[in-house]
């Protein structure tokens, strides 16, 4: 179960949009995150992380997009479940092989 988010998604989207708008209007990248964070009363690092992830998702920055990260997590979870099931089947097959072997005393 994912952790509860401190800020609603609408606020995140608004903050990221504001940073991109300020950068577009002024042509300056520095200070935009601090300005938006102060205006909205949000931690600067939180806004910085949101902007970075938005840039990755938009293809403006290299990295793993949010959709890819979610898919990777799902595949890893499925892989763990399949490995557990495989171990159970191996143990069961070894048990039944001993039970069905006519050479072994019962």
From TrEMBL:
It holds the Pfam family HTH_Tnp_1. Gene3D superfamilies: Winged helix-like DNA-binding domain superfamily/Winged helix DNA-binding domain. Residues 65-92 form a coiled coil. Keywords: Coiled coil. InterPro entries: Homeodomain-like_sf (IPR009057), Transposase_8 (IPR002514), WH-like_DNA-bd_sf (IPR036388). This is Transposase.
């Amino acid at each position: 179960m994912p952790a509860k988010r401190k800020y609603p998604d609408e606020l995140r989207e608004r903050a990221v949009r504001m940073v991109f708008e300020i950068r577009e209007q002024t042509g300056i990248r520095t200070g935009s995150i601090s300005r938006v964070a102060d205006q909205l009363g949000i931690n600067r690092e939180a806004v910085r992380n949101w902007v970075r992830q938005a840039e990755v998702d938009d293809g403006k920055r290299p990295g793993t997009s949010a959709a890819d990260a979610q898919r990777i997590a799902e595949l890893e979870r499925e892989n763990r479940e399949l490995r557990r099931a495989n171990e159970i089947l191996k143990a069961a097959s070894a048990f039944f092989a001993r039970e069905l072997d006519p050479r072994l005393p019962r």
